[in-house]
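Lab manual, section 2.4: Encoding a predicted structure.

Procedure: take the sequence of the chain (141 residues), apply the prediction step described in section 2.3, and record the output as structure tokens. A sample record is shown.
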Amino acid sequence: MSSVKLPSTARFLLFGPVIGSNDRRRFDQIKQALGQGNLRAAGQAAATWVQQEGWRFSPLRLLQRRQDDRDDREFDQRYGVDSALAFVDPADVQGDNFNGQYFYLASTVAKFRRMLARLKMKHEDFTFIDLGSGKGRTVLL
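Recorded output:
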């Protein structure tokens, strides 16, 4: 696989929150307002950023993400499968089939199990069909 620059969404999946161009624009607004001595505008811009984007940096969210990663690795090890994150290099795709999708991301084990538990139904009475199953983690669950 040749070296490929990952899009920000893929970098986020690997490394956690990434400061992007929207964040930088908001930070520039804050910096400009502070430079002009306009604390109110700086505060409003900061509050808007925290309200819209701050969730990405929540310690609880980061801890949950780490726990989900650990659970997913344990699932793969326990069942001898590889259902985790995978990246695609456009150079490795034959023909015109590449549509800009750089990565595959499976549903997390914990979130999928919670979703199934919330369904008020007898699961054994139904057939589960996973459309676009990727590596098939949800089928295995």
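Check your result against the sample. Strands lie at 86-87, 103-104.
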